[in-house]
Amino acid sequence: MIKKKSQISKDSRLAEIGNRVRALRKANTNLSAEDFANEKGFDRVQYSRIENGANITMKTLLKVVDAHNMTLEEFFSNLD
Q1: Which residues contact 38 (CB under 8 A, 6 or more apart)?
Q2: Which terminus of the chain has a lower count of CB atoms within 10 Å, N or C?
Q3: What single string gives the DSSP state of each residue in 40-59?
Q4: pLDDT tens across 21-38, in order?
């Protein structure tokens, strides 16, 4: 039996980006991840993966940044 690879990366930088996305949602809305995803046009499973540090495309990152009405510079300003 072949085991499916985990969609969540072990790269701590991806986890840090996921944590940033979660923190932004919680700081700027009173919505659950599922409600935020629905309101902003994300698939709820995809959005959950983003907040949990999954490897995402640049297009998805731009969609997240746009959903928070931020620039890329603002998004990355608090990350190491």
Answers
A1: 44
A2: N
A3: HT--HHHHHHHHTTB---HH
A4: 999 999 999 999 999 999
Q: What are the phi and psi torsion angles at 21 (to 5°)? A: -60, -45
Q: What is the pTM of this model?
A: 0.84
Q: Which two tokens stand for residue 1?
A: 């039996």
The rounded radius of gyration (Å) of the Cα atoms in the chain is 13
- Can you read off the two tokens belonging to residue 47? 């959005």
Q: Where are the domains of the chain?
A: 12-68
In 3D space, the residue among 49, 51, 75, 53 whose CA is nearest the CA of residue 62 turns out to be 75
